Amino acid sequence: MKHLSSLLLALACAAPSQAQTALTFTARAPLPDGGRYAMGYCQDQSYFYMVGGGSPATAFTSQVYRYDPAANSWGTGPLSTGQVPDHRLGKAVLLPDGTNPIRLYVLQGATSAGPMTSMSVLNATTGQAIATSTGGTVASNGGTATWNGLLYSFGGVLANGAFTNELRRFDPATRIWTSLAPMPEAKSAQGAAVNGKIYVLGGFDGAVNSNRIDAYDIATNQWQTLAPLPTTVSNQALVVQGEWLWMIGDFTAQTYLTAYNTRTGQLRTFTSNLPGRRNAAAAILNNQLYVWGGNTAASNASTLADMWQANISNILPTAAPARLPQLTAYPNPSPTGEFTLQLPAGSHRVVEVHDALGRLILRATPAPQTESYTLRLTPYPAGLYSARIRTTQGLTSPCQLVRP
């Protein structure tokens, strides 16, 4: 019997543990002004931002709030008020473009008169308006994604109430919108860019919710339909963790909590103590999942003001990438198109430059043992580029180059 017990213990220790299927959330500081739903949201490495949305008092607001997770504080008041139109169902995007300060782009909002007709550009530090930009699709409640410093906007509801499948790209360096291959179906949907592809999950086409997953390849300008979700989902919060996309809440199944692996197609479903919601916001920082706001019904009275945090550090099998050598360039931005790259040590180094669509446009070999290299992008148009140095030890981290 002693030997049998030892064998069973050994087998138990050797067996793989079951994947965690439950998350425990803890409460954080409540939202200001009674809460928000259908607000734009985004984050950097220090703060979370919340723009517009509905409140208990009104269906449309214009305030910009900033949350400090280290201090667990929404501050003493909004960063700004009235710098964007009163709206809800909009998107907020932080987009570094070589400028100081970092800019906050607000678009695709629904106002009392219809979709916002322009995109607002704010100072992310103060919340004050810097500029507006026109030329994009005049639609509300669409999706957005960013990749290599470019902004992608897709889907939404037009001024006449019809849904659109249009996909457009905005280059902050040139302030030009470009039409791309349209989505396979017209709808409002959430999406995000991972490893050079924009993944659009679920959505609503005005009649039914969707369970589709479509992936747009930025380099080839082509869409691919992937295996669908087992159930429909819409009005979910969405946030990226490595190769995974977390989705929180749903228009109908408000306790919906899943993570989708963009590489394998695996879908993990979780239970939790998070109260159900739709039209919420989410962020991930230091392996902590934050969820805040939203609503539970069509009335403003159902607006939520709670904020929650869950530790997800050991939930998903995503290996942390090895830290890559850093590559720096100056001046950056460079009005002339000439950049000086500080090279990593080594004798065999190859400079590779890609455009914002991920296409290799230039490859050069600096002289051995030199510490810097002059990169000339003068023959190429204004825009955003990404440079890397390939060595015998691998690639450096990418350095974004801005050519105004």
Automatic annotation (TrEMBL):
<dbReference type="InterPro" id="IPR015915">
    <property type="entry name" value="Kelch-typ_b-propeller"/>
</dbReference>
<feature type="signal peptide">
    <location>
        <begin position="1"/>
        <end position="19"/>
    </location>
</feature>
<dbReference type="InterPro" id="IPR026444">
    <property type="entry name" value="Secre_tail"/>
</dbReference>
<protein>
    <submittedName>
        <fullName>Putative secreted protein (Por secretion system target)</fullName>
    </submittedName>
</protein>
<dbReference type="Pfam" id="PF01344">
    <property type="entry name" value="Kelch_1"/>
</dbReference>
<dbReference type="InterPro" id="IPR006652">
    <property type="entry name" value="Kelch_1"/>
</dbReference>
<keyword id="KW-0732">Signal</keyword>
